[in-house]
Write a structure and sequence with these properties.
By secondary structure, the chain is α/β, with parallel strands linked by helices. It folds into 2 domains: 191 residues, Rossmann fold (3-Layer(aba) Sandwich), CATH 3.40.50; 167 residues, Glycogen Phosphorylase B (Rossmann fold), CATH 3.40.50. Helices cover 41% and strands 15% of the residues. The protein contains 14 helices and 13 strands. Helix 1 links the parallel strand 1 and strand 2. The longest helix has 21 residues. It is globular and about 65 Å long.
Length: 370
Amino acid sequence: MPQAVIGIDCRLGGKQHAGIGRYIQNIVTQVVTHTEYTWVLFFRSQDQVREFFPNKLPKSVKVVLSPERHYTLREQTSFWWRVQRQPLALFHTPHFNVPVLYQGKLVVTIHDLLWHQHKGSAVTTLGAGEYYLKYLMYRVVTSIACKKADSIITPSNTIAEVVSSYYPETKEKLLSIYEGAEIASQQKQLDAYRPNKQLLYVGSLYPHKNIELVLRALQKLPDYTLTLVGSRSVFLDTVLTRAGQLGVKKQLDVRGFVPDAELFELYHSHLALIQPSTSEGFGLTGVEALVAGGCVLASDIPIFREIYQEYAQYFDPLSTASFVQAVKNIEKKRPTLTNAQKNSLQTQFSWDKAAQQTLEVYQDVLGNTT
């Protein structure tokens, strides 16, 4: 009996694509070790293939180069044709951007429905015409993805509830699978933490990330600095301009992308990683910071309460005063996890566990083939 063929869209994989990129890379490199299936992986380039498999491509893997950019018309035409030509028993799109004409068993990962909740000119750098056309396509594609999917993976129970609130018909197809803390694998011995007034932010700078609140807080925290780390430069100019207007630009240290070993040190050495978002799908950087021996200061929203539990320090994301007070409280006593708590988090948020649960989703969908 021939092996079932599973296809996975890897075009958004790799660390340059931030959280989604890490998710795809970690899930894919682990599930393909299961040789009872044949795997067809769709990559944009050979460089991306080498990032996933730096030593040797597994024998069970076939690579299809697909240079089509995500969120484009070509994704819905030529990329769809590349996928359709493969003898797939199942196709996994690890984001909402499914090729809508695809016919076959489908697994979709929806990391959030952020753009359902935040829309308009303030959340984009595009012109109004281009933005609203793309927004319409986003809503259409997401709706079709939810309708066609045999199973929908979300990174948290909070996001599963959001998806089912917009698309009630998905309720029986939703499964929450927590992400992992890859950064925890760094074993380098670090110097003991030295008290400082350095705050750290890791991620993109979209408006919902709420960096505006932090910039305003820096006016009341003149002795503090904020290190900005992130692979995406969208809205960086906006943030720097706003920092200049508020007179806090000299308090910013912009790093851009940094490798994991350096990021691990930053988590450990700064007073706290801040997570001021008003909306999030998971909050991977906070988990990474906690298991790296850092401290996390997070906005008091449901997703962070679910993921960080009692291990983070919380503040009102709509109150500058609340953030300032939380920073000062942490300076007095910087809470970090015990080794037992770190081990507990690493067990709960494990890429091995996430990959195994994802594989079980594939097996369940294939088992339901009629």
